[in-house]
Amino acid sequence: MCANPLEDVRVCIADSLGVPIDSVRMGFDIPREEFGDISIVLSKAMIERDKVSLDRLRGCRFVSQADLKGIYLNIFLDRERFTQLVLSYVVGREDYGVCREGRQRNIVVEYVSANPIHPLHIGAARNAALGSFIARILRAFGNNVQTRFYINDAGRQTAIVALGFKLLKEFEKPANMKPDHWIGLVYAITNTVAEIQRVKKELEKASGEEVKKLKSELDELMVDAARLYSIAPDAFNVISEAMKSIDFEEEVSRIMKEYEEGEPSTVSLVRSIINMCIEGFKETLKRFGVEIEVWDWESDLIWSGEVEKILRELRKRATMHKGALAIDFKEIDREDIRERLRIEKGLEIPPLIIQRSDGTTLYTVRDIAYTLKKFREFNADTVINVIASEQKLPQSQLRLALYMLGYTREAENLIHYSYEIVNVEGAKMSSRRGRIITLDEIMNEAKRRVLMELEKRGGGSEEIAEKVGIAAIKFYLLSVSPSRPVKFAWDSVLNFERNSAPYLLYTYARTEGIFRKARELGIELDWAKMLQKIDKRLAETARRWRLVKLVASFPDIMYKSYKELDPSPLAIYTLKIADEFNTWYDEEPIVLEKDESLRDSKILLVYAVNKVLRNSLQMLGIEPIERM
RNA sequence: GGGCCCGUAGCUCAGCCAGGACAGAGCGCCGGCCUCCUAAGCCGGUGGUCGGGGGUUCGAAUCCCCCCGGGCCCGCCA
Questions:
Q1: What ipTM was assigned to the predicted interfaces of this complex?
Q2: C-beta within 7 A of nucleic chain B, residues 290-329 of A
């Protein structure tokens, strides 16, 4: 049973008109107020064929007035009956908004999965906010959801950071630095120093235009190096000094190979570094309100032989490409397969190299083994990978490879949930050069700003500042559609006015304030009792009626966000109901209403708004607060 | 060069997939509102050739084609 008042109305209308419910659902719309409370866009054919008659609509008890205007069937609802219906759904139902109808599915959501060689940055924050939202809303609608984090410890970057720590020898981590920040710094220093060496070497052999290009590249590198030096001069010196006497590429390649082969001293070095970084991630994510259930090590897939097994299967189908063993997807690159695997028509799929010439494995191949593991271990119907849009190509190759190896069910049910990246104004982020805005610093800055704001208003606690600040970040990241890049700017993330999480939390706190005041005045807040005697005048004013209608449309909005796994409809709706509530709040007294019957019904309406705000904030991953 | 995403008010963004009734918010700017339930609020004003051009349609911000601008990808990186 779904508590959705608008759906009840739709069913009622379809029944009375004798038309299929789906045509009413399809054409359903909320029109401009003067036209009606709801409207249904009818097809011309339907008007002709079914002879839509206004008379028959009288059979629906929620309709008070209807009018056919062109293709629009405009309907005014019976305010009293509809209000009663809406509020009866809200009272005594904690999860108002969600609907558990339909088959329960087992769904794995893999998200964040940031490279464990630098702190989580603003891009990972968008991923975390989106991924946790997806997991939450899938769960709310009754699915079994498991969340996973893929620790990419088998790549080249891991070897680079390991080399950095090797060169540092006994050098200690600065005491006041978070471990993942320290690792990110060592990674950036090692990488930048190596890049400088490479460019300098190339410069010796270059001529003409090439020289100019390399010189500007070198200039840029020197700027990064200077910045890194200023953060940790001693560590920088140790690494750059030690780098002079080694062959960087050879060392990196050796570490990678030893790690894949499970050579004990390399394994213990790499694992201790990555573990430190993961501890840092967990701390950051916990603060951000995100918890991931299963942490998978990429290297485990190699050591267990799962990657080798895939590799053997792939080799049977491999051809040579540019001197390397590769999979060419031409033979299965057909329109019908693309459609089944949701691969864009025009996307050009280059061959997939399956193994480096030194024998080490490549990411996409390892990811095939990982995908199968995710399906297998949770008996998953669907696996969702929350990954930035820039990985569209490898994700498509992954599905094609699965399909080619005969894992068609997995290929068809692996979803790449793609979102656009976060751009930082005026600067290009680069973790390789240590140029990132970390989630830790964003949270600190947000908290600092909220605290300042609270002090301006005479008080407030650290705890509230923390909650409000983090809510602001999350809401900002979720309110932009996933397909659109987010432009990061401190002032827009941390804005505390309308259209922001602080505004929503403030509005929620106001509703709580009303209940507090009511209790103070000795008013009994018995919702069931209030529901039994809703004052006829409650929905008489335009403002209160609008609020009733907004509360009524909450399940539709939730469903849309669920179906599309898109938080933005919910975010926008929440702002709208907050706006309407604040206007009402200023317009007339609620608890101080003299007429007791009307007063109680007004408080009941506040209760409905409060519940809708709470449920949507929680769905967005924001913890409501009672005072602000 | 090819592919994907984006282009809507000075700025940040909804609406586009499933075409319909004068294109919506916030910020900014100008002017008001705290003896009364939280002023992170409310009210009024300001502001748009929906990137440009064609096409489909009774009707296009929305669908199709071309062009322009921005981002991302096209690696024995992930």
A1: 0.93
A2: 322-324
